[in-house]
Every structure is written in C-alpha cells, then in structure tokens.
Amino acid sequence: MNIVVCVKQVPDTASERNLKTDDKTLDREAADGLMNELDEYAVEEALQIKEAQGGEVTVLTMGPDKAAETIRKALSMGADKAVHLVDDALHGSDALQTSAALAQALRKIGFDLVILGSESTDARTGVLAAMLAERLGVPQLSLAGKVEIDGGNVRVERQTDYGHDKVEGSLPAVVSVVEKINEPRYPSFKGIMAAKKKPVEKLAVGDIELDAAAVGLGNAPTQVVEFAAAPPRAAGTIVTDEGEGGAQAADFLASKKFV
Amino acid sequence: MAEVLVLVDHFDGDIKKVTLELLTLARRFGEPSAVWVGPGYDGAKDRLAEYGAAKVYVADGELADYVVAPKAELLAKLAGENSPAAILVSATPEGKEVAGRLAVKLDSGVLTDVVDVNGDLVAEHSIFGGATIVQAKVATGTPIIAVRPNAVAPVAEAGAAAEEQVSVELSDAAKGAKIVDRVVQAKGERPELTEAAIVVSGGRGVGGAENFSVIENLADSLGAAVGASRAATDAGWYPHAFQVGQTGKTVSPQLYIAVGISGAIQHRAGMQTSKTIVAINKDPEAPIFELADYGVVGDLFNVVPQLVEEIDKRK
Ligand SMILES: Cc1cc2nc3c(=O)[nH]c(=O)nc-3n(C[C@H](O)[C@H](O)[C@H](O)COP(=O)(O)OP(=O)(O)OC[C@H]3O[C@@H](n4cnc5c(N)ncnc54)[C@H](O)[C@@H]3O)c2cc1C
Ligand SMILES: Nc1ncnc2c1ncn2[C@@H]1O[C@H](COP(=O)(O)O)[C@@H](O)[C@H]1O
Q1: Which residues line the pocket of ligand 1, CB cutoff 6 A?
Q2: What ipTM is given for this predicted complex?
Q3: Is A43 close to ligand 2, i.e. is its CB under 6 Å away?
Q4: CA distances from A54 to A6, A50, A57 (A)
Q5: pLDDT at B131
Q6: DSSP B57
Q7: pLDDT exceeds 80 at position B187
Q8: How does pLDDT run across B138-163, given as a tens digit for each residue?
C-alpha cells in the first residue's frame, strides 16, 4: 500500500500571527512553525494502516524551506520518505492553486491512499481533501472518524452534524481524518535519529508539469483587498460574586432581552 | 437582476436557519435561486418563498446517496446554464467541501468562513481567532462563498419560489464514495451548536462529567445549546462533537456564556465573533474577561444555580 500523507506547517496558534503589510500574506517567518495539529492525526492514521497492511508512507508538503522542520517531525514519527514542494513561484497560492500543485505532485509520486487532516489551523478552509479528490478523479472519503481498509475497499465513518454516515469507496482514494480519530505518537529517540537518514525529495513547479502561471499570489483566484486589526471590544462590566452574582447576571441578560 | 445560487442546507426537509441567512444575504447582490438536493422539498418550499427565493431548482433522487460530489456537479451544471453572479453555501464542513469541488470544476475562486458580504461581493473574514478582519474578493470565475451560520440576521421577503425540476447525469467519479448508512444520534431537545442563538459552554472549571448538568440546566433555562472547551472534551466530560474552538466548532451566537473557561486563544478562535459574551470564572485574571460584555468573578457552583433560578423567576 502506497500511502501519501499531506501535512502543512502552520504558525503556532499560541504565538502572535500577522499578515504582512506589503503583500497581505501570512508572515510565516515571524511565528514559530509547527506541524498543523490536525495533520498529526493524519500521519498517525497512515502509520497505523501501514503497520496493519504493509506498504510505505510518504509525506508530502508544500511550503517554504522552513517547512522542512515539519517534514522532519513526520519522518521522526515513522514515515518512510518525503516530498517537499518548494518554489518561490508558489508563494501566496490560495486553496485552489495549492490543490492544483498538490494534485500534480501526487500524480508524480503515485498513490493508493492519500490522507489529509480535516483543516489547517491557519487557513482553516477545510477544502483541500475535496479539491484533491475532484482533481484526481478518485473517491472522497473525508471527515473520517474511523477508517477501515479491506483489500481494495475503504470504509469510513464520516462525521456529520447529526452523527455519522457510513461511506464506502475503492482505492485509490482521498481520505481526511478528524481530530481524535487516534492518539498521535510522539517521535521516539530512535525515530528522531532514523529520520535524519530518510530521503527528502525537493520538487519545484517545473518538476510537476504545472504551469508557473497557475500558482502564486499574482495569479490567485482570490485576493485580499484589505485587512485590519479587529476593533477592540468595548470593556465589559465585571462584578464579583458576593452572593448576588447569579442575580446580577440575570439582570444583565434581561437588559439585553435574552430572558 | 443577476441570479445568485443558494445551496439549501437541510436535514430531510428540515431547513437549517443558515439557509434563510444565505437567502437574505443573496438579495444584496442579486435574485436568489435556491438549490434543493434530496428528499423533503414539499414541506419546505413555503419557507424558501418566505425568505425571497425567486426560483427553486429541485433535484432529488440519487444525488444525496454519495458524498459531496453530486452537489458540486449539480451546481456546476446550473452555473453553466445560468451564469449566476455568485454561489452561496453554508460554511459547514460539508458546505465547504461542496464549495471546494465546485471551485475546481468552475475554475473559480472560493472564499470560506465568510462572516459578511457586501453588495460588491467583497467578503469579510475574521481570522487568527478573531484578532484580524480581512476583506477579500474572488478575482477569477464565479465567486463561490461559504458563509458562517449566524453571520447575518435572516429577514423575510416574499419570493415567487418558482419550482424547476432539474437533473444531472452523475459522472462515475461522483459516485465514488457511496453513503451506505446514516447513523443519527439522538439529538435531544437542544438546538444544534452552530445554529443556536445562545450557547452555554463549560470548561475545566466544571470539574467532572457529572457536574455538566449545571451547564445543561443553564442552557435549558435559556433554550440554548451546550458547548465545551477542549479541556472538558479531552477529559471525557463532554463529547468531542460539542468542542468549541480552533479544532472544534466555530460558533457565532447572539449570546455566548463561558463557564469555568479561561479563554485560551484556541478557544477564542471558535467563539470570538459571538455578539454578546458573558463569562463566569473564579479567577479575576482569566483572559476570557477581556472579551466579556458581562463577567461574574465567582464560583460557578454558586453563581450558575442562582442564575438559573433568577431566569426562571423572570419568565
Ligand atoms: C493546536 C491547539 C488546538 C486547540 N484547540 C482548542 C479548541 O478547539 N477548543 C478549546 O477550547 N481549546 C483548544 N485548545 C486548548 C486551549 O489551549 C486550552 O488549553 C483550553 O481551551 C483550556 O480549556 P479551559 O478553559 O476549560 O481550561 P483552563 O484553561 O484550565 O481553565 C479553566 C478555568 O476555570 C476556572 N475555574 C475553575 N474552577 C472554577 C469554579 N469552581 N468556578 C468558576 N471558575 C472556575 C479557572 O479559573 C480557569 O480560568 C487547543 C490547543 C492547541 C495547542
Ligand atoms: N501546503 C500544504 N501542503 C501539504 N498539505 C496541505 C497544505 N495545505 C493544506 N494541506 C492539507 O490539507 C488539509 C486541509 O487544509 P485546509 O484546506 O487548508 O484547511 C490539511 O490538514 C493538510 O493535510
């Protein structure tokens, strides 16, 4: 089984994140980068499938040089090799463009199963699994809270707002996993050492049969017009409970017509 | 006036409130045409007319039997035939996936998690946990916009809701992921978290699964949905499906009450666009108070029961 897991490096949500004033893109240099937390579940699921069925796990990431740190983490967890799509021409690509680039890279790598996280914590679009399935013409088994591979078939429990759908498709397929599908492992010391020797292939736009005019900020199908810091909320009223706190809160709710 | 396609979000004919919000929004830049997929249309059409749908494209049958792709194929077909000014879907996980596939099919830009759209189709997002407000637009193709529930207030306005049956010959690729069973969890009486006008959330301060009844009592006295912080869902006190925040649900209710929640940035990411925020926490330094329109510093086990009692008195 040839499994490719798509991971993204994102700025640490705990650090201050900003858009750059010159080109209105995320300032990735200013904040510490780490693996999108939701992608840890994708890596773990890939490793568990490999452990049960055999095969190989390839990590795919598109991002600047710095994203190599995130590749290293996935390799330390146990992935076998990695492909790093890195090219200045990709800077500022939006979701649609990113999906075009990742789809071309996936075609080049070859796959039975592609696994993604459900959402990146910086862009938060949650669209990539759907876009990749559409571009690659393979089944979309997304938002999975459970994945079962049985020969050439995949069954997932797709999380919905009312519970879940049981969904079936056949390989090759694109899967995305939701938080808490599994318990992502920590890299072991041995894993960290082994990761240093694992192959990381760098690809540029020219290597994946993608027209440079199809990606990058200047060609993006969506554009940021302007941005600003959110206006601060007006300071609220804070009271200390001295036996009447609940009643005071009820008065407030009544004044706002909530009761 | 240009047509705007609005994908109806419903559960077996039960229309989600967000659909009415989308119809309201669509009227700012065109004439809304609702797009209905799946069973239950007959019971729902009056509601669509009431909120200004000029037309309703109705496709039932097998489209709802497969994951997401058929909806995108239908919308792509309608877009090809009618050149709409924009296509609106709800920014739910499924709505966003429909938008994603459609964007690829139409080679159009897609904006997700939008909280407002003006008459020129410039969309507003709230990013980085609400710290930054971004205005963005689609520069290529038909704007595809996924709008968050509760972003705008639904306003009724009569529409003709002229019904047009439509069908689409599904591609094999669209039938790749078949829904073989649907497991519906007992929903109970409470409104759905992302749709609710009022949300009451509990955090680590609640102290245990058994104490969540304190949160539920407050929610029920207000007709609210119940949410939880990650500390509470990680501890197994409340199901993960109710987690609010960065890696949980995003809510934007009229009123959000945070009980025993410190207000970490990742929690704020999921609730910061709530219209009114109330916090109950025993630590006066808790960052949630920076957001609160009203805060009570105190022990939740004293404050919340009294609050419930007082609400009941005022009913
Ligand atoms: C990548 C990432 C994603 C995350 N995603 C999410 C997410 O989606 N949602 C989320 O919520 N968190 C998320 N977190 C976790 C987040 O950082 C916080 O750890 C979490 O929100 C804390 O939950 P809490 O406020 O309930 O707990 P705490 O921070 O422990 O706060 C508990 C509060 O309860 C108060 N308290 C205690 N006892 C009482 C009492 N008797 N009466 C009144 N007050 C009391 C305390 O004063 C304290 O302020 C994420 C973290 C990371 C790193
Ligand atoms: N630049 C990227 N490189 C590799 N995978 C990505 C990239 N961006 C997003 N993904 C994957 O797509 C998922 C959804 O991301 P998003 O659609 O941005 O919310 C993530 O969890 C990743 O698995």
Answers
A1: A 13, 37, 121; B 203-205, 229-232, 243-248, 260-262, 264, 266-267, 270, 281-283, 286, 299-301
A2: 0.94
A3: no
A4: 19, 5, 10
A5: 81
A6: E
A7: no
A8: 999 999 999 999 999 999 999 999 99
Token pair for B305? 């029961």
Smallest CA–CA distance from B305 into chain A, residue: A246
Structure tokens at B108: 């159009």
Atom 50, ligand 1: which residue's CA is nearest?
Answer: B266
CB atoms within 10 A of CB B291: 21
Structural domains in chain A plus CATH codes: 2-219 (3.40.50.620)
Closest partner CB to A137 (pick from B11, B67, B173): B173
DSSP B229-258: -HHHHHTTSS-GGGBBSTTSB----SEEEE
Residue B141 with chain A: CB contacts under 8 Å: 221
Q: Is A91 helix (H, G, I), strand (E, B) or coil?
A: coil
Nearest CB to B139 within list A141, A158, A222: A222
Nearest to A259 by CA among B156, B284, B200, B281: B200
pLDDT in tens, B115-129: 999 999 999 998 887
With b meaning 16 or more CB within 10 Å and e meaning fewer, what string describes B204-243? Answer: bbbbeeebbebbbbbbbbbebbbbbbbbbbebebbebbbb
Residue A71: in which H helix or E strand, if any? helix A68-77
A183 touches chain B (CB under 8 A): no
B116: phi then psi, degrees, rounded to nearest 5:
-165, 155
Residue whose pair of structure tokens reads 């205005």 in the numeric block: B135
Contacts of A66 (CB under 8 A, 6+ apart): A9, A28, A29, A33
Query: What is the Cα B188 distance to its own chain's centre?
Result: 19
Q: What is the pLDDT of residue A18?
A: 85
Buried b (16+ CB within 10 A) or exposed e, B161-173: bebeeeebebeeb
How many Cβ atoms from other residues are within 10 Å of residue B14's Cβ?
Answer: 11
